[in-house]
Amino acid sequence: MSCPFYGKCALPLARAVVPQGGNQCALVLTAFSPCVMEVDEKKAPDWPTCPRNTAYSQHSAAQIQEWERDMQASKKLFEFKYPD
Fold first, then answer.
1. Overall number of domains in the chain
2. Nearest CA among 27, 69, 1, 18 for reference residue 9
3. Residue 28 counted as domain residue
4. Is the pLDDT of residue 8 over 80?
5. 1 in a domain, yes or no?
6. What pLDDT digit, counting tens, does each position of 59-81 carry?
7. What range defines the domain where residue 38 resides?
8. 43: pLDDT confidence band, cut at 50, 70 and 90?
9. Could you tell me which residues come within 8 angstroms of residue 27 by beta carbon, excluding any fewer than 6 positions away?
């Protein structure tokens, strides 16, 4: 599987991306939507060949990836430990 949005839920108001544990597509921001490749095309998720990989979706994809980077940076701040 090579899709960075597979199994995740994007929460635009919180600027967050949450692992969902299922086959949700994080690119659909308005409702739950399963992976179109798995459901409609009966194929493994693959971002380069996904029907949702369009010029229009590139903006959403970039935003979601930015949110994920922000979340990782925040997580590192909370994991910081002071030296003994």
1. 1
2. 18
3. yes
4. yes
5. no
6. 778 888 887 888 777 777 666 66
7. 8-79
8. very high
9. 5, 10, 33, 52, 57, 60, 61, 64
For residues 32-51, give the mean pLDDT. Answer: 91
Can you tell me the mean pLDDT for 29-50? 90
Give the position of tokens 């179109």.
36
Cα-Cα-Cα-Cα dihedral of 70, 62, 21, 13, to 10°? 60
Residues of the chain with pLDDT > 90, as a percent, come to 24
- For 34, phi then psi, to 5°, come to -70, 165
Q: Which residues contact 12 (CB under 8 A, 6 or more apart)?
A: 29
For 68-75, the CB contacts below 8 A with 24+ separation are: 68/4, 68/17, 70/15, 71/16, 71/17
The answer to whether position 29 is within a domain reads yes
Considering the domain boundaries, does residue 84 fall inside one?
A: no
In this structure, the number of other CB atoms found within 10 A of the CB of residue 66 comes to 12
* Residue 57, token pair as written in the block: 């979706």
